[in-house]
Amino acid sequence: xxxxxxxxxxxxxxxxxxxxxxxxxxxxxxxxxxxxxxxxxxxxxxxxxxxxxxxxxxxxxxxxxxxxxxxxxxxxxxxxxxxxxxxxxxxxxxxxxxxxxxxxxxxxxxxxxxxxxxxxxxxxxxxxxxxxxxxxxxxxxxxxxxxxxxxxxxxxxxxxxxxxxxxxxxxxxxxxxxxxxxxxxxxxxxxxxxxxxxxxxxxxxxxxxxxxxxxxxxxxxxxxxxxxxxxxxxxxx
Length: 237
Ligand SMILES: Nc1nc2c(ncn2[C@@H]2O[C@H](COP(=O)(O)OP(=O)(O)O)[C@@H](O)[C@H]2O)c(=O)[nH]1
Ligand SMILES: [Mg+2]
Description:
By secondary structure, this protein is an alpha/beta fold. 40% of the residues lie in helices and 18% in strands. The chain is built from eight helices and nine strands. The strands form two sheets. It has a seven-stranded mixed sheet with strand order 3-2-1-4-7-5-8. Strands 6-9 form a two-stranded parallel sheet. β2, α2 and β3 (60-64) form a beta-alpha-beta unit. The structure holds guanosine-5'-diphosphate (GDP) and magnesium ion (MG). Residues 8-10, 12, 38-40, 69-71, 74, 91-93, 95, 209-211 line the site of guanosine-5'-diphosphate (GDP).
């Protein structure tokens, strides 16, 4: 069994190399894996940093997209250009702790999707404002969709490739982090068993968040309403 760790990057020059080494450290020795970086031609030289350190390392694949930019389509690109039977998706700013990788892979024996979650016991965020706003937003999502998932905005998750690609990915992978809400709701509708493991987001050490509060809030809310309609009318399954 092989795992592909998919890492979308935009302006993560000072995080990505350290993160990849941390992933090497964290992954169980007996597992075959690849690290797939999908960089959207970051102007800070993220791709160059990856090349410098891992050019000759067969475990690391680097893709640089020049025609398109966007988190969800970058992740989709990573799915299409990787070959592990197990897929794990992570942010590259150390919000998503690589030490959780063994659990996220192991528990797939028992569940369909493993989610790194801030809102189950021992999870959380050093940034208290974002923790609070995400918590409230997740309550709204749970009310609107009757889903039991506590962190629908996580984006840190693992799944078997065949279970993911059996979904209609074109209906899911567009926009920003809202793709994850769509993915979970389709999974929930299909009866996928999900497990949330606690993750604690430390503050970003390097680089900047690409999320702007007000515009993200508006975009996600619109995305949620459209998703609600599509699920009601049976246009998403
Ligand atoms: N390839 C790619 N990655 C992106 C893009 N926007 C954000 N990312 C990556 O997505 C992850 C989450 O982004 P981040 O800025 O930390 O957003 P936040 O976690 O919502 O504050 C990080 O690994 C970013 O480098 C993008 O347009 N293209
Ligand atoms: Mg982040």
